[in-house]
Design brief:
Length: 514
Amino acid sequence: MAAEDAAPAGRPEGLKANAIGFVDALVIGLNSTSPAYSLAAVIGPIVALVGIYAPGVMFASFVPMLLIASAFYYLNKVDQDCGTTFSWVTRAMGPWAGWLGGWAIAMTGVLVVGSLADVAVSFALLAFGLDSWVDNTFVRQLLTVLLILVMTAVCVIGTELSAKVQNVLILAQVACLLIFVGVALYSVYAGTSKYPAIDPQFSWLNPFGAGGAALSGGLLLGVFIYWGWESAVNLTEEVENSATAPGKAGLWSTVILLVTYVSVGFAVVAYAGPTFLAENAGEEEFIFAQLAGDVLGGWDWVLLLAVSTSAIASTQTTIIPASRTALSMARRQALPAHFRHINPRFRTPDVSTWWVAAIAIAWYLVVSQISENALFDSLTALSLLIAFYYALTGLACAVYYRRHLFESVHNFLLIGLGPLVGAGLLTWLLVKSVMDMSDPENSYSGTSWFGLGPPLVIGIGIAVAGVIIMFVWRLRAPAYWRERPGVADPELVHGHGHGPGNGHGNGPAPGKET
């Protein structure tokens, strides 16, 4: 690589330092969650479970996300590595747990990118009145693949370009959602809703209003709508003030998402009423298309375009964590060396990015051939991977800082107890998910694979494949597995500076902590 492309000291050579700022990272974190699409996908099912208390469940789902975001913030302070969970868990708990955490992140991208692009294409076609194209499987899938390729190219061309695209998309998305919320609530109070509307009440924020069983099911869906904010932290090596800005972007992303989700939740429940939403919960995101026409009339394309831009944005940003994690794993010899290749011109991980896209396209096309429901079942399996690596990160934070948790109330609450509680909640959700998914009746298809629900089979298959690949690579390249877990550098805990660089970030080298 040319000398002018060399990275500053303490950075992995190749990635472009200070490519984007805090606001850009915040926008990428927001877009990675795909707010409009996430709302469209889960508002019906959540209302079916908890009725008018849907806003309360969305609020309750925010709690474990905020606690895990705190873990991301404090772990990023000690190690600004684009591999995030992979690198941090390796430091705190050893290479075996770290590798599995990295595998989970990489596979979430594979599972969801195709579905996001499919939704983006479908809603864009609906917005432009091309409904017949949506029903044409070949045309829709062709456009979906093309969209994935375009978004992948944007990721490769540069982080700055990615940020500029995301800034435009988030503005369009938020503007469309605010218009929908405003018009829907006006219709409620003006008495012009086409449905049995009800006036919003503060009591809807009570997550326990519908009972414990309904709450647990709603929380499982709630975790999905918040997932993705940590993409801002995956760009830590390319963000200004990398020790603090990415972590703050992740924290603020969860707060902004909370306000967005609760606002839209109030508007939708008030306008359509819980009965209609519960009866049409099985329609998933296309219930938004119907409400768009009812609320906005001839301007329904505004909301349809919001969902489309949301999914387009998330298609791009979901590639980022998977590709950066693969890069980080390859740098530490936990994956083949070609995954750490950096494009000499754009300073982005081009090989790992294209690999993520290629596998995601293959998964989308193959699973789509099985059935449309199988594609939805693969999305349901996401909750297993998400809960796993989030919980692992929360636990790693408390373990890594274990010698400093009782030095202050701040450390105990924000670095220890908070992440542990978040990890505990997500572990409970993981176990609950496995129990629910074991029943085939709980899947989209309602069919049985090996006596279990398809989402659980997909989740188990991904886990088994990961373990097999891990053991095979351990035999072929054992260097990574020699790393030993350690504890946090006191200098970082007390805010006096950074430890010696390890070539992956600014924290102390794994296995050499004091």
